[in-house]
Hints:
11 strands; eight-stranded parallel barrel; 12 helices; alpha/beta
Amino acid sequence: MKITGTFLDEITHDIPSQNWGPDDWARDFDAMEAVGIDTVILIRAGYRDRATFDSEVLRRHRDMLPAYGDLVDLFLREAGRRDMDLFVGTYDAGTFWDEGDYRTEVAVNKDFCAEVTERYGDHDAFAGWYISHEINAYDDEMLAVYEELADHLRGLKDVPLLMSPYVKGPKQFGGEALPFDEHVASWAEVFARLEGCVDIVAFQDGNVLLPELPRYLEAHQELAARHGVTTWSNVESFDRDVRIKFPPIDFRKLRYKIEQAAAAGVDKLITFEFSHFMSPNADPPAAQRLYRRYREWLDE
């Protein structure tokens, strides 16, 4: 298998901005197409006081910084030019969700996603929704957000819904990491709750110790299949194993994760995130070299 999808991290949050303009993005979409990427996922259409376009809805709910361009329109046009599917991410207030104010998070997202649909819903490249809010285990109130928001999104534009949860693993959580058996038991409850609600699940793989990855992938595949959910794998192309936050991953690790996901039988491989960590146009030279190593491996 090869990576055929990537997130687009459009708002600087925990990785540096590359300050790209339309021509830079066009070149990068060309680079994506050259390695077989056919799906792009806008990881969020807004975050805190920033948005990917000038949203009247968000300005009604809070003070927003200016949006000097329309990245949603840009990405849809670039995806359409190359027959790619684009999944549009929701809004993450960065406060309501973190503080447990789930009702406000849902209310703002309902208004915001209706605005997104009105502006962009007729575009041919608009092929799915991405629920930007990440979870790692069963939580009744968080899952209620998923249920209500998913129902609303389907009413706006009935296209597949994608989620990309993370594992509460030792790389990020140390001694508070959730043991494997507890993780599986918790996600059995999550999948039972979300059956018919979410179409695709793409677990982030970077927080799992590499020797443990195969059994996590197999468990996720089995649970998702049991509840009719398509399984993708989010093969992270940044490295969580080094002290710097965050460099492009060692190619040998990337290849290992790709091979293990393929062995587990996932339907598709996506990554967070091509443009910063494995693009020939990325600022870090290590990302440019990761692209070359990946191309060499594909050519074999």
